[in-house]
Design a protein that fits this description.
Bound molecules: flavin-adenine dinucleotide
Helix content: 25-40%
Distance between the termini: 46 Å
Radius of gyration: 22 Å
Shape: globular
Number of helices: 14
Length: 429
């Protein structure tokens, strides 16, 4: 058996894997990236956050992404119970230098990132699926066995492994360290539409979020006129489906009048996809010779469009750590500890909001945001993904959470009922 050698082997060419491969190749390491599919390929997750733009600039792809993206200046939250909407403009967040993000077709976006990795010098092999990993290879290295689409097998000996396999969670499965999130559970149904009614002016590129009885919807306008629409629902609701998924999705949309109205003249242009419970995390983010990035480490919920940002940010942190490990053992432990802190920080910040986003108390605060102690600006900074830098909004964010607790305490009956309902809803179906 012939064995190829490389410094870093990356599993997966999504945003996390392609970003890590680019950064490590730029630092002079030999990088091999294996992707089981061939780009351009469909992927859900089209809405980016303003904090993503800085990462795109550092990667040198900001102009390319601008050319395929729809500018997203904010988000609109719509409550059908109050028949009103509330806009959040990123320009009003704490740091005013990040006023917009993009909505992107992921097939195009992910292609830009993987091409960039190849340009940086990484060896990129598509249609090549990792089948087995041995973490105790010769000299502390890693042995990876993969299979090309035609069936040919190939083996690599690498000094370090980067698992960026997304929701396949390749390594966490193999190591048995993937855990279902006990505090959250949801499922999704989604498709693309043409002819959906758009807002005008700056609001055209907004993401719209609609609450409804069984969860919430996203409405994401794309640059070419298509619109991504998805329902994120409690597992019991998806389980109740007794008709074909297309019919079920249309009935679900009909249950949310303000969204149904925007889709009244729209045509569905893709298949409806249903995906089951996806809230999980791995108990560890790294070992001596591997790191897990992005969804390969954890995913909670799409409500704040944080997935791509967390994936790419984890790749920046991961590349730092892997580089330190490869340059010598002296800095390796501290570098991996720092990496681990960053990996846990993002999911922690977003999950506080995710766990409460369908609770009337938080819905009320979102629908009537006010800015004493700069609380609204701090909230907007979280919505913009500005959680890894030096923006000093943490005290104001704590004040917002305190306000939430006070409002919940003032309505004890409602709060207890909500808590009970939530416990029932997150039970796996
Ligand atoms: C319903 C839903 C809606 C979402 N909406 C948003 C949104 O609006 N905005 C947002 O930011 N995020 C969203 N997300 C999350 C977002 O899609 C992910 O967080 C993001 O794609 C993670 O990037 P990644 O690189 O970690 O993984 P991925 O993008 O999934 O990439 C992993 C890659 O690894 C490859 N791979 C897997 N196994 C192997 C193997 N054995 N060998 C070789 N290659 C392999 C896969 O083919 C894939 O290309 C959403 C998620 C869901 C479920």
């Amino acid at each position: 058996m012939s064995v190829d050698t490389t410094d870093v082997l990356v599993i997966g060419g999504g945003p996390a894997g392609s970003t890590a491969a680019t950064l490590l190749a730029r630092r002079g390491h030999r990088v091999t990236l294996l992707e089981k599919d061939r780009h351009p390929r469909f992927h859900i997750g089209e809405s980016l956050l303003p904090a993503n733009l800085r990462l795109l600039e550092q990667l040198g792809v900001a102009d390319e992404v601008r050319s395929i993206g729809m500018q997203k200046w904010g988000a609109e939250f719509v409550s059908p119970w109050e028949a009103r909407h509330q806009d959040f403009r990123f320009a009003e967040s704490w740091d005013k230098s990040m006023p917009y993000a993009y909505q992107v077709r992921r097939s195009q976006f992910d292609q830009i990132l993987i091409d960039n990795a190849a340009r940086a010098g990484a060896q990129v092999l598509e249609d090549c699926r990792v089948r087995t990993v041995e973490l105790t290879g010769a000299g502390g290295g890693v042995r990876v066995h993969a299979e090309h689409a035609g069936g040919a097998a190939r083996t690599w000996q690498a000094r370090f492994l980067v698992d960026a396999s997304g929701r396949d969670t390749y390594l966490a499965n193999q190591l048995g360290c993937k855990r279902r999130n006990p505090r959250h559970s949801s499922a999704a149904l989604f498709a693309h539409f043409s002819g959906a009614r758009r807002h005008s002016g700056e609001r055209e590129g907004y993401i719209s979020l609609y609450w409804f009885e069984h969860g919430w919807f996203w409405f994401i306008p794309l640059r070419d006129g298509a619109t991504s629409v998805g329902a994120v629902v409690w597992p019991y609701y998806l389980k109740s489906r007794a008709v074909p998924v297309e019919q079920f999705f249309l009935a679900t949309i009909a249950a949310c009048a303000p969204l149904a109205e925007r889709l009244a003249s729209a045509q569905r242009i893709t298949e409806v996809v249903a995906t089951g419970n996806y809230s999980y995390s791995s108990t560890r983010s790294h070992g001596n010779n591997y790191v897990m990035l992005g969804d390969a480490f954890a995913f909670i919920d799409p409500v704040f469009s944080s997935g791509v940002l967390l994936a790419m940010n984890s790749a920046f942190a991961g590349a730092e750590a892997v580089d330190a490990c490869l340059r010598g053992p002296a800095r390796a432990r501290a570098a991996l500890r720092r990496f681990d802190r960053i990996m846990r920080h993002g999911p922690r910040q977003f999950s506080w909001f995710i766990y409460r986003i369908t609770q009337p108390t938080l819905i009320g605060l979102f629908m009537r945001p006010s800015n004493p102690l700069r609380m609204k600006e701090a909230l907007l900074s979280v919505l913009a993904g500005d959680i890894f830098g030096a923006t000093p909004m943490w005290r104001s964010l704590r004040a917002f959470k305190l306000l939430y607790a006070l409002v919940a305490l003032l309505h004890p009956g409602r709060s207890t009922a909500d808590l009970r309902r939530r416990r029932r809803n997150i039970r796996p179906a």
